[in-house]
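Components:
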Amino acid sequence: MGVSYGRGPLHLAAAVDLPDCFGAEPYLELVRLAERGGLDFVTLDDSFARPGPDALAVLSRAAPATRRIGLVPTVTTTHTEPFRVQAAVATLDWVSGGRAGWRIGVSAGEGEARLFGRRPAAPGPDLWDEAGEVADVAARLWDSWEDGAEIRDLPSGRFLDRDKLHRVDFTGAAFSVRGPSTVPRPPQGHPVRLVDATERQARTVAARYADVALVRAANPAQATAARDELRDRAQEFGRNPDTLRVLVSLLVDLGDGEHAAEPGHGGGGPRATGRGPLYRGGPVDLADLVAGWHADGVTDGFHLVPVEPRRDLERLVNGTVALLQHRGLFRTFYPGSTLREHLGLTRPANRYAVTGRNVMTGGMS
Amino acid sequence: MTVRPQMHLAVRFPAAGDTAAGDTVVRTGPRTGSRIAFPACERLARTAERGRFDFLLLDEGLRLPEHRGRLHELDPVGWPEPVAVLNALAGVTTRLGLAATADTACGEPYELARRIGTLDHLSGGRAAWRVAATPEAAENFRPGFHPEHAPRSTRTAEFVTVAQLLWDSWTPDGTPRPFTHRGRHFDLAGEFGLPRSPQGRPVVIRGDDCEEAREPAAATADVLLTRHAPLAAARARRAELGRRLAAHGRAPRDVKVMPAVTVVLGDTAAEAQERAAGIRRQRVTPQYALYALERLWGVDLCGHDPDGPLPGIAPRSGDRETLARVGRLRALAEEKGLSSRETVIEASGRPSFVGTPDAVAADLDAHVREGAVDGFLLAADGLEEFVDRVVPLLQERGVFRTEYKGATLRSHLGLDHPAREG
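Structure:
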């Protein structure tokens, strides 16, 4: 696979949201289907504002039913406990063997606030400021156990090496956490953090903390602009922008066959709708669009949200993805086993671990 | 023909890290990786289901234990978020009940009711919630949950009431209905995110370890976890529970009483005793003995020889309970001529049931037959051996199921589905 400037391998993800579905099996069918297509990950959205199961629970249920695909539930930060949120995401990483992600969300409505009765609904910027703090403290807590902190030394009876556990002593605007976590460092070190960077307030959190950012773009120019902005801001935060994957999120409706886009649609490209850019057309045209935008360096990949999940995901995998694979543009099997590996992201170093400590202080204890 | 009362069995993981747990599986298990790695959880759940257990209970950790201002490193720690693990285990089991400990001191009823309710839906009606309240963990949680803001027991009681209100809020035919609750601790309204549970309502598990927990437990518990007690004491406790239940309009069979027990088996009674003693010796390492003494004495005993006599100094605290416990240890050491470590070993908790599989099965059966308890919550330690050697004997006695009859945890426990008022 040729890699030109600013463009790595193509990444593909799909949403597996199902309205009014509370049992496991329909979700499992979709996740398995996405895995057959070799997709990087699936997302499952969540909100307290409408009926539906807890998304992290559903994808925990999907973990033993799949082997390679990344599992990225939305977990909100407004009415939840940061300490529990990070523990749950770390646990998803444990039960899936390193395939967990976390789509960071907020609860904006008064209705959701009333379900908790703890505090009134806050304005958007405050919610995202808090979400940023939760994203930050989560990563600190994931690092609060160094790898290998469980020593289980039988002769001394020590289960832990407390020198490898760390307080995080985090104080945010609305909460504080002392740490360490109660969950050992997850297999990926840090599960993948994903932020939908559509809203302006969310963009800062995406640039600063996200491994994957979603952008809404109806044409290549918009996608380029959004990607460039995120990469620039990531750099301002002291990050290497190549550690951020920017995916274009598209609604897809594959119900009508090739070249069936509405009049004036311009050959099957996406058009703006109230719910975000919508691609309506056939799986082959979609493959052309995906391949074209990616080849032009406009995006690292796509997050595709099927309008009719059962129908569209099947057409996506067996049509669009199969074609991209045939053209050598998308993986035909998973060379790695963790979501970070699928995304080409390294396992982060632990911020608390002192490299070479054993060499430097060996014999001093 | 009389029907033998049926026994209920459950297993708990990971061990809470207390000294009675005897967590030798963890200590002697694989030396690399984490004790919470999923394959270990999966193996345990499959073993419990092979043994036709009622449920698996996972503990929750909200902070790591400390000793003298530092993290305590001698006991196994590290707890996954239990509901996420149980959802994964729902995918590798088909009948086993899945119980999560979830704390009411740090959290909100809506979020917790939804998490447990989701587990119930995804597992086809196998979920249970073990109610816990750990105020010591406030350092890791949002403000407003600190215990001084409201008494713990009344908050917990109201928390459970709200959760049950939410679980019952949809109509039986699956239409959301608005709920409203305004109480001393919680004030919330809206629509719950989930239809009614496949088993009517998730099972509620509570403990009776302190006096003020008993009354709320009698009001709302489906399963009551207790301490193990000798037969006569357990029967008296059961009778007391019956009176409390009656005051709430509930029948004795509405609550299953399950003490937490440990079991050590051997081919002979002597061998079983020897194994039990060996486990205690293995657990109470020299470091562990010093740790236990430091906790009691309240002072730094660094440099004290665990193989020498008990510390000659007086404990820091002069309260009666501490002095009495130190006095008992001194008397024990003197009487048997024991070193510090040997004294701690001698004084450490004994397993609840020690003996041959036959003897243990008979003993367990007697506790159920006499109406003292309905079953037992076992430590994960030695589960495989228990399932292979004791469960078949219980089944031969006709006191434990050979197959699951129903699909839900309520049906395993012989509990009614809560009335489905319209």
